[in-house]
Amino acid sequence: MTLFQLASFFSQCLRCFFTAWAIFLVSSLSAEPVAAPIPNNEKTAPKSELEAGQRAAAAKWNQAKFGLFLHWGVYSVYGGTYNGQDLWSAEWIQENARIPYEEYAKTAAAWNPKDFDADVWVRTARDAGMRYIVVTAKHHDGFAIYPTKASRYHLFASGAYQGADPIAALKKACQKYGLLFGIYYSPLEFRGSPKGFDDADHQAVAAGFDYRTLGPKPYASDRQIAKLAKAQIRELAEWYQPDIFWFDGTWYMMGNWTDEDAKESEAIIRAVIPNVMINNRLGLKHADFNTFENEIPHEAPQGAWEYCWNMGAFWGYNPRNYTPELMKNPEHYLETLGRIASLGGNYLLNVGPDGTGKFHPMATTYLQKIGEWVNPHRAMFDGVSGSPFSTTPAWGYVTCKDGVVYLMIRQSACNAPIAIPALSNRFKSAHLLTDANVKVEVKEGAQEWQIGPVVDAPQQPFVVVQLNVEGHPKELKK
Ligand code: GLC
Asked: Given the CA of residue 69, which atom of ligand 1 is nearest to it?
């Protein structure tokens, strides 16, 4: 081999190496399109218009009172099982089971929720007496269930699923059945920060676990994730115009989401939808409502608030949820609804549909049973305030509005009169909420009013007495 041949052999090798490198770089970059730039000068409506919009949104949201939370994504396919192991996990399974990114992405690409039917979901919610839904457009796993243009990681990218856009279809069904439409969105994701996301992760990392063993992350930095989030928030606002934006996952362990990110996101949303409700988990100083989960506050919190929790024990689908032990009974959820309404809050009850797009039959049955009671009693939830009394009675729950107090009395307490603190309002009349012909006796004492007993009380978990008074109900302070 001459010197010239040797040199050209080496230069060919080099060229091959650089071409391969360039192909690798381009393909790895094109795996996730870079999110569209975010203009900083959003055209927001004038302040007065915004404030009027927010007031209107808050009134509609308070009117709705009871909603259905839906956690649905690729995690629903796993149903808490990974490599033959049944885990106490659902929407966090990617993280909890440490599923390599590529492998999870393959499950995502093959996902075909062929039984998804927005009409069924929303009708089931409406029949349960609910007046809004909130659905996960993108959870912490980063997989969008709508055809986002800001990333290739979505339900429509592979072609395995040929059905309707779930977000658009659910919005349409909500319009058809008269429900408010809410979008859950997690700006930060498992594919971002390599530090782990909860205490268990941090302990694992401290004990030597290395996230790099799960494969390369598609994002180099938290900033890229935040940029992607803002592009997707813009899409969700512009394309679907939800009544509610329900954010989650911006806490510190998930990565780096700044106050500026929160403010920019809010500006993006309010420029498109002035009359929207935004929850407190975007990171805003003044959110439209606060969220409580798992623990119901003991006293009525200040401002608009919502309690969310599961029917059972999981947010996402896990078949182990559906036992009488975990699901309790439909009355339990009525009890929760009464308690929350009496504290002035909204109740967002969660169901995780399965990977095919269906509710577990037990969830459907429970929702039907809940609806059988809530529907004829909706008036005690429609746009009401919490109890006018400073203490919670042992016999049930109380809500009120101008001229009316609703007493939600446990069946077991219906045989004898119940007592309420005396009201400062003039008493007009009292009857069953579901039947104005069934009058209820009221004895007005100086300290207490005696109500009932409700003669021939209907055989239902709770009996509601409507107390008509003059003016806005107020406890008589001694
Ligand atoms: C927590 C969980 C999340 C769930 C959310 C609902 O933030 O991390 O999985 O979606 O609660 O409120």
From this structure: 6
Q: What value does the mean pLDDT take over residues 389-408?
A: 97
CA distance 99 to 203: 18
DSSP-derived pairing of the beta strands 435-439 and 427-432: antiparallel
Q: Which CATH class is domain 396-469?
A: mainly beta
CA-closest residue to ligand 1 atom 4: 315
Q: Which two tokens stand for residue 5?
A: 């041949």
Instruction: Quick: pLDDT tens for 177-198.
Output: 999 999 999 998 888 766 778 8
Of 388, 405, 391, 409, the C-alpha closest to 335 is: 409
- Of the options 3.30.10.10, 3.40.50.10540, 3.30.1360.170, 3.20.20.80, the CATH number for the domain spanning 52-380: 3.20.20.80
How many beta carbons lie within 10 A of that of residue 477, not counting itself? 8
Which structure tokens are listed for 199? 């205490």
Quick one: pLDDT at residue 357? 98
> What are the sequence ranges of the domains in the chain?
52-380, 396-469
E strand or H helix that includes residue 406: strand 404-410
Q: Is 198 in the pocket of ligand 1 (CB under 6 A)?
A: no
Q: Which atom of ligand 1 is nearest to the CA of 308?
A: 12
